[in-house]
Amino acid sequence: MIFHHFEIGKISFDVVDGSIFDLGADVIVSSENTRFDMASPDAPSVSGQLSGICGMPLQHALYEQTDGGVMPAGTIIKTNGFGAARQIYHLGIHQPGQWLDDAEDRDTRETEYVDLISAWVSDILEQFAASTHGSIALPLVGCGVFGISPTLMGRQILRRVIEASGKPAMPPGKRIMLAIQEPASTQRVLDDIFQSVLDLQAPADLPDLRIGIEPIDHYVDTKVTGTNGRLAAWSLCNYAATLTSFMVCRLATYLGITEPKMIFPRTGPVSFGSFEEKGIALSSQIDDRSPEDVKLIANILAPNTPTRAALQRIVADRNNIAHDRAHRSLEAITEDTLTFSQPKRWRSNTQNPRCDDLLAKPWAARTEGNGYTGLFHRYEKNALYYCVPHTGLLFKQAHST
């Protein structure tokens, strides 16, 4: 077993080539479905190995907390370690059976989990910071069942570790370990982590993609970055996804659509591809009497246009990057991002109103305290979930249909 050690602010971060169970961590992180069914003992995942080590007592401990029901994605349940550690943090990431057997747009749906899991890792680290435990070990969550790129997820986890290290709530001396059970992935993950450190010190010279509207401009200022071609390409693709969701939420607000299920028939996170598809349908309902920003959105999302073609290529690149496949050059993705987003046309529109005047519930909501704008993310029974683009914060508000 090889430890690659980093000192990040007031905490230690280790990338370890070996089993998560051999690290001696106080806390082990395992991912499950949202009913918190443990994997089969013969499965290679952390959940499967815990089944073999801890047996049914661990499964019973989980069901006692869920009462056998399905919990919202992102739920974290803590149990006794049952000999594997002092405590186990179980992260529910997908509903039982959902998407796993669904071949249609599977790539796009899996890709959505990159940023979701990254945000949930931040939640895990916050709970770890508030605990009395001194060390925690995480696997590369999502790289098995969803086929997410290990290098990309390693970068996402590193960024969350860096963020956590700078928060006042994180006590000094805590230790965070990333366990990589696939030896072939270790060096690639390490290379990308070293590159991530360089990226943070010398961000790429990417074009100005601000459009003069708050949630998008906050996102550009904090998330569109990277010197490494792959990371910068990923940030541009995510910008396009964020802008697409904003534009669809704006169209839905203008058209008076008051229930998400009217255009998104199934619960759960809405994928980039689904926002793109619904944007085309909604844009066909816009006419010349509409506000200037609405007409601009309709023109961008309309079928058989250069902007729409650019968006389709970006969707494909985003899926390829997330799954560690070959993708187009940073230059090509940058050109398509500018073609699709039309930032100069947005900024030249002197009629751009405040975000609060553009979006209304259920398509956007403000967080308590800092008042950041969250865009519609998904709906579940009696609740709407929103995501703040530039922080990744997910929050929910009660909603009855």
What does this structure look like?
This protein has 401 residues and is of the alpha/beta class. The protein folds into 2 domains: 2-201, Leucine Aminopeptidase, subunit E, domain 1; 214-398, no CATH class. It contains 14 helices and 11 strands. The termini are far apart.
Query: What is the CATH class name of the largest domain?
Result: Alpha Beta
Can you tell me the CATH architecture of the largest domain? 3-Layer(aba) Sandwich
Query: What profile does the largest beta sheet have?
Result: 7 strands, mixed
Radius of gyration: 21 Å
CATH superfamily of the largest domain: Leucine Aminopeptidase, subunit E, domain 1
Number of helical segments with 4 or more residues: 14
* Low-confidence region ranges: none
What is the third-level CATH name, the topology of the largest domain? Leucine Aminopeptidase, subunit E, domain 1
Sheet with most strands: strand arrangement: 1-2-7-6-3-5-4
Describe this structure in a few short sentences.
The protein is of the alpha/beta class and 401 residues long. It is 44% helix and 16% strand.
Topology record:
Layout: E1 2-8, E2 11-17, E3 27-33, H1 46-54, H2 56-66, E4 76-80, E5 87-94, H3 106-111, H4 113-129, E6 135-138, H5 150-165, E7 175-180, H6 183-201, H7 214-223, H8 229-254, H9 272-283, H10 292-301, H11 306-322, H12 330-341, H13 343-348, H14 355-358, E8 364-366, E9 373-380, E10 383-387, E11 394-398
Parallel strand pairs: 2-7, 3-5, 3-6, 6-7
Antiparallel strand pairs: 1-2, 4-5, 8-9, 9-10, 10-11
Helix pairs in contact: 4-5, 5-6, 7-8, 8-9, 8-11, 8-12, 9-10, 11-12
